Amino acid sequence: MSAPVNNQATGYAVKDPKKYLDFEVTKYELEPLEDDRVTVAVECCGVCGSDHHTISGGWGPWETKFVVTGHEVVGKVVEVGKNVKQFKVGQRVGVGAQVGSCGKCKWCTHDNENYCPEPVHGYNTKWPDGHDHQGGYSTHIRAQELFVFPIPEGIPSVEAASMLCGGLTSFSPLVRHGVGPGSKVGVVGLGGLGHYAVLFAVALGAEVTVFSRTDAKKEDALKMGAKRFVATGEPGFEKDLQREFDVIVCTASSSKLPIDALLTTLDVNKSFVFVGMPEEGIKNITSQAMAGNGCSLGSSHIGCRTEALQMLDLAAKKQVKPWINVIPMKQAADAIKAVEDGTVRYRTILTQDLV
Length: 355
Known about the structure:
The protein is α/β, with parallel strands linked by helices. Helices cover 21% and strands 28% of the residues.
């Protein structure tokens, strides 16, 4: 793969949120190659629920005139800024859901750059100088060096891709809550994020219980390594699980979860962490529901570089294998429709077909 010609990339763009399944092949200008930035020629890109929420307008108005979505990119380095030290042309790398930050605040300088108040996201976003940044359903992307990750040799590109958002988003709350051998982890929802939460919690040595509305995905959960599966549609599902879990990671994007019941299954002073983000938000949660065991509600946003590298190393060593469906990038609309319909098992990866 070569560097962009005339600083232009070509991508599958959506130009109207009312027609979010109408992807058009579009040429556009990349942001400048600043001294700390890396240009990556895209080999493949994962499809995330965030892609659907964004292009459909579910998360609000667009910041850019059109959107080239995709923030789970694996490809080859084709250009580096003069201050880039860690990467060379030809190296295989990944880029996730964030491509830039201020680099100076206390969060950026303390392994929390994913919480920088001035982030540049994976798409539908602008750099501080006003230039648009587009995503990975394309030939090329650019990112600051901090947000580019070397991919271990033992992980195929199509397997690494969705780890860079779906995987990292699920991995970060696990390690930040001290999950390891002997930990008991609950995972709510078994979709793209949930399946990663199971895979990585198991790889970290935890005992995992999956909560889902019905038994439809029970067999899959057990094959992924979960020890127990609980259907929350059954009344009283929580009765035998009081104060059981060290952390619950909620990956579901539903506002109709039985949260009060789930909270009772946390041990004292433990946390229920949202990584799923329903468009309509979560309502009717009372402080009384958390008082009995002193539990906490929280959330989590992707992960930092340190966690990304730790996750990739763990995936290589433990041979973590995501459940993926690989299709050409021109079938992006089919992939988004599958996310909307909930038929993905469990992540879709788009392979490059624009070059």
